[in-house]
Amino acid sequence: MTQQSSLKRKTISGLFWSFADLIANQGIQFIIQIILARLLLPEHFGLVGMILVFIAISNSIIDSGFSQALIRQKNVSQEDYSTVFYFNLVMGLVMYGILFIIADPISIFFGEPQLITILRVLSLVLIINSFGIIQRVFLVRNIDFRTQTKINMIAGITSGILAVFFAVRGFGVWALVIKTVSMQIIQTLLLWINNKWVPSLVFNPQSFKRYFGFGSKLLVSGLIDTIYNNIYYVIIGRFFSASQLGYYTNAIKLRDIASQSITTSVQRVTYPILSNIQEDEKRLKNGYRKVIKTSSFIIFPIMIGLAAVAESLIYILFGEKWMGSVIYLQLLCFAGMLYPLHSINLNILQVKGRSDLFLLLEIIKKFILTVLIVISILLKLGVIGLISAAVLHSYIALFINTYFSAREISYSAKEQVKDLLPIYLVSMVMGIIVYFCGMKMNEGNLTKLVIQICIGVGIYILLCGFAKIKELTTIYGLILPLIKKIKS
Question: Do the beta carbons of residue 252 and residue 123 sit within 8 Å?
Fold first, then answer.
């Protein structure tokens, strides 16, 4: 009982600080994004978007799945940490060197000469990030999201101020580059200051082989996932204009403030927690079921509601020059609402040590996405067709993830659908009502947005109560101790 109580306290505390990080850090980034979008042009964001895939792939290679392997392992030695640290550092230097060399061919591919310098400067984050990976692992293993929240807030505010300053001074796309690099530098410095761990002068080959055995499969699956998560930047940047890529980039960031942020918050808390109870099948299933239902209760209405109010929201936040991103955002929301479910289902495979199955599923899902992308390109469906393919793929991938994760914890895909369908239907009804209410209103965009949000919240709570969705009570039960924690 004592161990369970301790785990429960850690979970509540972890959720509190993880969501505090979400609200504070993402809120700060959101405000900065609004300011920069008004100061800069869509093509500035498009230029950075063209090279995001190369940075993302490099970061996956640098980590190589070792972080998840260390978090999952119950007993980790100083030799283990030091071995992984030096591997991360060497890979960071190697990947920077590779990107420095291929910067010229990349700029030719996109037809943008200025990408050479942008990529060579922005790639410095790879070396900087490699210094902080192990420091973050310590915080995650200890479920210490309070420290991470503080670090992210300080780095976000400081780098945001720098970016706005340079944007005002007319630096254009370089304001975005400065923001990314400065944030990584500040985060890494603060991680070392707050965490007193220092690597030993040792590299243990046996330790490396042991963790690489688990991490290598996650590396390959992570690379596949990273490539396909960013492949749209490459396709849109190559075949369409920088402005269209800018619209897509901004829509992705706006969607991710809700979708990916909540996904990350839930994932980084639940993974170490579920890992601690991986031996207890009954507790693991019950814990997993509560997490997936509660996450859906939060993310479904937020994403559907965001799609319903997209037109008013984008006009108010970014101005008329960004209205081309409205339809992109609406479609992306219907794909993004499933991301937490993907993440939680795949967490089960990692907790169970099934990195082999994790890899196999990634290959299958990406093959399906490739087919959908090729079809949309051959039919010349444009950017909207490409995004629609991503939405369809998200639903297909959810079925695949739930089917295989269900076999590991005896929680079938049918049970998951039965648990989630009421929440999905209630959210859809709420979104449809909010959307058509907005169409009928003649008020200004701000007034219309406020009314739509109030209608959406009221209808959702009312429908959940009518449908007897238990998560309404669960959320209240989670919020109450958090409020008490804030007061104390």
Answer: no
What span, in angstroms and rounded, lies between the C-alpha atoms of 477 and 307?
Answer: 28
- The pLDDT score that the predictor gives to residue 276 is 55
| 233-243 residues labelled b (16+ CB within 10 A) or e (exposed) | bbbbbeebebb
| Contact call for residues 175 and 166 (beta carbons, < 8 A) | yes
Query: How many Cα atoms sit within 13 Å of 35 on the Cβ side?
Result: 19
Taking residue 444's Cβ as centre, other Cβ atoms within 10 Å add up to: 12
Using 70 as the pLDDT threshold, list the residues of the chain that sit under it: 1-26, 72-74, 143-145, 214-215, 217-218, 260-284, 350-353, 355, 408, 474-488
Q: What angle separates helix 281-308 from helix 339-351, to the nearest 10 degrees?
A: 160
Q: Which pLDDT score is estimated for 1?
A: 46
Distance of CA 118 to the CA centre of its chain: 24
Nearest C-alpha neighbor of 391 from the set 456, 307, 294:
307
What whole-number distance in Å separates Cα of residue 157 and Cα of residue 232? Answer: 29
Residue 380 makes CB contacts below 8 A (sequence gap 6+) with none
Structure tokens at 428: 């859809």
